[in-house]
Amino acid sequence: MIRYLSYGLFVTLRHLYVKIRLFFIFILILFLPVSGDQEPTNKLSIEVKPNIWGGAKAVDVQKVLESAANQLTPYIWQKNLKPIQVERSQTGPIVLYKRGNNGEYLVRLNTQKTFWCQYAFQFAHELGHIICGYKKGNSSNSWFEESICETASLFVLKNMTKEWKRQPPYANWKPYALEFEKYANNRLKKHPWPSNQSVSTWYNKHKIILEKNPVNREINTRFASIFLQFFNQNPKGWETCAFMNKQKSDKKRSFKKYLFDWRNACQTSDQKQFVSKFIRSFGFEEQFFNR
Predict the structure, then answer these.
(1) Is residue 254 located within the same domain as residue 125?
(2) Which residue among 32, 151, 207, 265 is least crowded, i.e. fewest CB within 10 A of its CB?
(3) Given 79, 108, 131, which residue is the final one in a domain?
(4) pTM score, two decimals?
(5) 119 touches 64 (CB < 8 A)
(6) Would 15 be classed as within a structural domain?
């Protein structure tokens, strides 16, 4: 009788062991990364050159730039962007057409010390060019990309305030949170949208200036104040920037065609609807929407 019970207990324990083992194997399979079809991430690698920031530590600069990037990368279309190498410029912030030896983006920032708002503002603008697929070509409509990049800077600063209130890179940086939004608001107050002016009317007044000088920060900021509302309402709209320059070439296009080319290059109906907001704001005809 005792031998019979021992054997039965042995069989029961063995079955239990097999079940537990299978359970843990299932858990491992469930959580281990899968090669091949693994979903790429939007994690951005940023490499900051040290000892050129007027006393600011490269690791601290990197923390600020990573925080800035994190406000945009969850919403962009591109996956696994090449790393960004960041150095200091003495002439002005820029992202170079030239790439690094392994395809890295080369960004230059014109700031120093611990002016974190400047770092974030300038970097977000250059990151905006990257997600817009910047490339050489006719520049008559480049003012629009510049205005979108100005929008990216404002969007990033305002969202960094929210993030740093909750979880800054370092606990003692928390009081700095409000400085980002203050920096953005000061820029908007300096270049407010003119009252009682529609986007289309104001564009038509300034389109010749814009075609000749895309980098007019006063006008870029005014347009950005309008565009910012679109992205605040729908942050996934940043996806559409990936298709902005798909049709760019040395050939000049009207601004209307530029907008419709952008819309037609988009991949989803939601993306097309988002770009349609811009088309409508500039007063272009509804019948062109299905082109």
Answers:
(1) no
(2) 32
(3) 131
(4) 0.84
(5) yes
(6) no
